[in-house]
Amino acid sequence: MTALLLDSGTAGAKPSAPTRRRGGGLLRAVLSSKKAMVGLVLFLIFAIFAIAPGWFTSVDDPNKLAFPPSLPPSADHWLGTTALGQDIWAQLVYGTRQSLVIALVAGWFATVLSVIVGVSAAYLGGAADDVLSSITNIFLVLPTFPLIIVLATYAGKGTLSVVLIVLIVTGWSYGANQMRAQALSLRNRDFLESARVRGERRSYIIVVEVLPTMISLIVANFLGAAVYSVLTAAGLQFLGLGDPNSISWGTMLYWSQNQQALQTGSPLWSIAPGLCVALLGASFALINYAFDEISNPALRPVRRRRAKRLHA
Amino acid sequence: MRFVGRRLGFFVLTLWAALTLNFFIPRFMPGSPVTALRVRTHNQLSPEKLQELLTAYGFKPNQNVFVQYIDYLGNMVTGHWGISIGASLGTPVRTLIGQALPWTIGLVGAATIIGFVLGSLLGVVAGWKRGGKIDSVLPPVFVVTSALPYFWVGLLLILVFSVWTNGFLPSDFNYDPDLVPEFSGPFVANVVKHAILPAATIVITSIGAWVLTMRNNMITTIAEDYVRMGRAKGLSNGRIMIHYAARNAMLPNLSGFAMSLGFVISGSILVEYVFNYPGLGYLLYNSVQNTDYPLMQALFMLFTVAVLVALLICDFAIAWLDPRSRAKA
Q1: Interchain contact, A144 vs B266, CB within 8 Å
Q2: What are phi and psi of B322, to 5 degrees?
Q3: Cβ within 8 Å of residue B28, ≥6 positions away
Q4: Is B26's CB within 8 Å of A303's CB?
Q5: Spatial contact of A241 and A123, defined as CB atoms under 8 Å apart
Q6: Residues of A in contact with B136 (CB under 8 A)
Q7: Which of B135, B52, B321 lies closest to A303 in space, CA to CA?
Q8: Which of A235, A304, A306 has its CB closest to that of B149?
Q9: What chain A residue is nearest to B290 in terms of C-alpha separation?
Q10: B115, B133, B150: which is closest to B256 by C-alpha?
């Protein structure tokens, strides 16, 4: 997918120079894409919520039953209060942190795992490749959510670390498959051949020569894994498999479902945290899609005039 | 023939991996589920029944792990899935699954196929009229819908079409509880009515992925020489679009279909839970609530088999659509 982009930059030059040049181009491309900008702005807003929730609400302990239950939205309680007597807006603001941590941490480790498995499968070849890619394919088709449910049940109701571990264990395979395919396609390129002829060590070739050329795929994978983690964690907590006392959007959804919020006239309790999950997921997905367009010029939006000429 | 053999080999290998996970996860996790079982069934089951239960569960304290493992594999494959230790204590797992299976196949199967067909068609049209009106609106919209949480879409639909409209569409169960299941017009209509909202949820959240991948495949395919050749021959646009471009662009989507069926199953568990729809997903939720291990394990195996069967069907569909894949094998 990214071969077109990579061809122009890397062949023949010193290993570090084209990387830097392309990195700059990548940044500029992201900034000039409307989809990516919308995604980035959404992400930044959530990041600020997560870092400094105290700036946006005067409530210190959002789980404390400090207010009259089931109040409608008002100046004091922007989104009203829950049937248990908590401020919905405060819970929402404080809940951002956990969702964001899950997205970034699970996304990061799942990506690292898929790079390790995918790239080593492609470079070791032979029996190692057979074993690694079989494992990848098996994890790819195992239905992950039931597996997560089973794992989380056996592991005891989930603290954050349990949720993170099951997300990483089940979230790496899709990326590993793609990494392997791309690493295989790079394998016989001239610049790698020249490194081999220079007598560089395998580890050096992989880290310094191969990984930089795969950076756009790696970023795309990270974003995909982050979306997956956010959605899955929220689903898991919604089912009550998270820690019911934690402050997170999924836990809010669990309690609102538990208290029949939709049917009892406080729909905001359900709708607001779900909307936040959706927006955070959408922000990653938009950045990812824009990234895809950047790394694959064929997919970029075309101007109408040119399109007409093509299909006349 | 080698192609078929390789695919079947993968089928068996993956099924084995799933069963092995099923067998070893409880043994490596903290706390002994067997103790939990004993406590749970205390004084409710005769010693023989309890023994039978533990056997079905793969636990025979007097034998080594390897023998237990082999027995367990045999039991699973031959359909000896044991008895439920959850809410319906003592009911064979097979009975429970048999009651729930048709509902899931009907709801999730139909919704998935509708989403796939509709999404692929939209993708074909969007990719064909590159930069056209449809193509400039659809992709960003579907990028967002494909990132929506399944259960949240379900909650929204319930709010709009059921709560705010005084039960315009039913928000739970598979049919009204006062109806007797029979094959008659009113009953079928009732079942369909109950399926609309959950099916819409699955279609809305799954369609985006199909549209986007199909559109991108179309764009790549349209640049191929054989499409230009078709144009040069003066074929009609419709013929080139369907027979030349779409047929080829479809191939990666088909394998993607099987791969992402796992995601659809995941989503449908949440959808069934939100709508109290008595299918396999709802059953899994209940088995988790009641720590009903035998039921949980049988369900996980079934979900795996479902994905694998879909994968096989798609492989054969690809082999049928694409002569190159037959030649390679």
Answers
A1: yes
A2: -120, 100
A3: none
A4: no
A5: no
A6: 301
A7: B135
A8: A235
A9: A153
A10: B115
Strand partners of residue B92: B83
In Å, what is the CA distance from A120 to each residue of A115, A174, A191, B204, B250? 8, 15, 18, 38, 31
CB < 8 Å & 24+ apart, contacts of A41-50: A42/A279, A42/A280, A42/A282, A42/A283, A42/A286, A43/A280, A43/A283, A43/A284, A43/A287, A46/A96, A46/A99, A46/A100, A46/A276, A46/A279, A46/A280, A46/A283, A47/A100, A49/A93, A49/A96, A49/A97, A50/A96, A50/A97, A50/A100, A50/A101
Q: Are A269 and A260 in contact (CB under 8 A)?
A: no
Question: Could you tell me how far CA B80 lies from the centroid of its own chain?
Answer: 23
CB contact under 8 Å between B31 and A241, yes or no, is: no
Contacts of B255 (CB under 8 A, 6+ apart): B314, B315, B318
Task: List the Cα angle B109/B115/B117 in 5-degree steps.
Answer: 100
Do residues B253 and B213 lie in contact, with contact meaning Cβ atoms separated by under 8 Å?
A: yes
Q: What is the pLDDT along chain A (312 residues), one digit of tens a residue?
A: 333 333 333 333 333 334 444 455 666 766 777 788 888 899 999 999 888 887 877 777 777 777 777 777 777 777 777 777 788 888 888 889 888 999 999 999 999 999 999 988 888 888 888 889 888 888 887 887 888 887 777 776 667 888 888 889 888 888 898 888 888 888 778 888 888 888 888 888 888 888 888 887 888 889 889 988 998 888 888 888 878 788 889 888 888 888 877 777 778 888 888 899 989 988 988 888 887 777 766 666 655 444 444 443
Give the predicted TM-score (pTM) of the model. 0.81
Chain B residues whose beta carbon lies within 8 Å of the beta carbon of residue A92? none
Interface test with A, best of B7, B12, B130 (most A CBs within 10 A): B130
pLDDT (0 to 100) of residue A114: 92
Give the CB-side neighbour count of residue B164, counting CA atoms within 13 A.
9
Tell me, what's the ipTM? 0.79
Residue A81: strand, helix, or coil: strand
Of A143, A234, A286, the CB nearest to B304: A143
How near does any CA of chain A get to the CA of B13, in Å? 8
A79: number of Cβ within 10 Å = 21
> Is the separation of the CB atoms in A115 and A218 below 8 Å?
yes
**Closest residue of A to B36, CA-based?**
A154
CA B73, CA B75: separation in Å to the nearest integer? Answer: 6
B236 touches chain A (CB under 8 A): no
